[in-house]
Specification:
The protein contains 6 helices and 17 strands. By secondary structure, the chain is of the alpha+beta class. It folds into 3 domains: 4-57, Structural Genomics Hypothetical 15.5 Kd Protein In mrcA-pckA Intergenic Region, Chain A (Roll); 65-125 and 214-239, 2-Layer Sandwich (Alpha-Beta Plaits), CATH 3.30.70; 130-208, Alpha-Beta Plaits (2-Layer Sandwich), CATH 3.30.70.1560. Strands 7, 8, 9, 10, 13, 14, 15, 16 and 17 form a 9-stranded mixed sheet that branches. Helix 1 crosses helix 2. The longest helix has 14 residues, at 226-239.
């Protein structure tokens, strides 16, 4: 008789989501087991066919890592209720989880993987992994304002004030600069700019740790090469 495992644990180990996230997928009716809609708390045998959003899921961790260039106007959500959800443009043949988020009006690099633990390690703010962005503002930014941004201004989120970390900032033009963050507050760069009196007109992420866009067209993806994947995993392990 095949050994049984709780379905949410199976989905978590397969890298689809955390156990809580897996329960949510099950509640939303997006998980099927051998052709039937799954229910919360169920256990499954290791030889059954599990589908999430009609795509097969296996427990084997292939550790696929894919770089994707998100266009503006796309939302980092898996909900099919949102017609602009990221999976409408990211059409990889296997179910992968996106790593971190970019807000709807931002564009650029997002990683996808089938390894839930890896995704969490990259996203976790405490691990201080670098993410680099190109920012265009609605007006010229003074040297003083750039300095204030680099020193980590306070930002307000839902009525609470948070201290941002010091960061690297490099001017590219009067109204353009690059910034390297090691945090991931919601709309952090936009809020940091607003804290010094400027607004973001365009925001593009160009690097996550050692992974760069490298000319990847908007809406396109590429699987990581072996060398860049190995370096990414080295940096993840170093940050733990």
């Amino acid at each position: 008789m095949a050994e049984e495992i709780r379905l949410n644990k199976f989905l978590s180990e397969a890298g689809v989501a955390s156990r809580r996230g897996a329960d949510k997928l099950i509640e939303e009716g997006r998980v099927e087991v051998d052709g039937k809609v799954a229910i919360l708390g169920m256990t499954i045998a290791s030889d059954v066919l599990v589908l999430v959003d009609k795509k097969p899921v296996t427990a084997k961790k292939e550790q696929i890592i894919v770089a994707f260039n998100k266009p503006r106007g796309i939302v980092c959500t898996a909900s099919k209720k949102d017609p602009d959800n990221i999976y409408t443009v990211f059409r990889y043949p296997k179910l992968l989880k996106y790593v971190g988020r970019l807000d709807k009006q931002s564009r650029g690099l997002i990683l996808f993987t089938d390894d839930g633990e890896l995704a969490e390690s990259i996203s976790k703010a405490g691990n201080a992994h670098e993410k680099e962005y190109e920012v265009k503002t609605n007006r010229s930014v003074t040297d003083g304002e750039l300095k204030l941004i680099s020193e980590g201004p306070d930002i307000e989120i839902d009525g609470k004030v948070y201290q941002t970390r010091k960061c690297k900032v490099k001017r590219l033009a009067p109204n353009r600069f690059r910034i390297v963050l090691t945090q991931g507050f919601n709309r952090q760069i936009r809020r940091m700019c607003e804290a010094v009196g400027v607004k973001v007109a365009d925001l593009r992420r160009i690097r996550v740790m050692n992974i760069k866009l490298n000319g990847l067209k908007e809406g396109a993806y590429r699987e990581l090469g072996e060398e860049e994947k190995a370096e990414l995993l080295r940096l993840v392990e170093k940050g733990r």
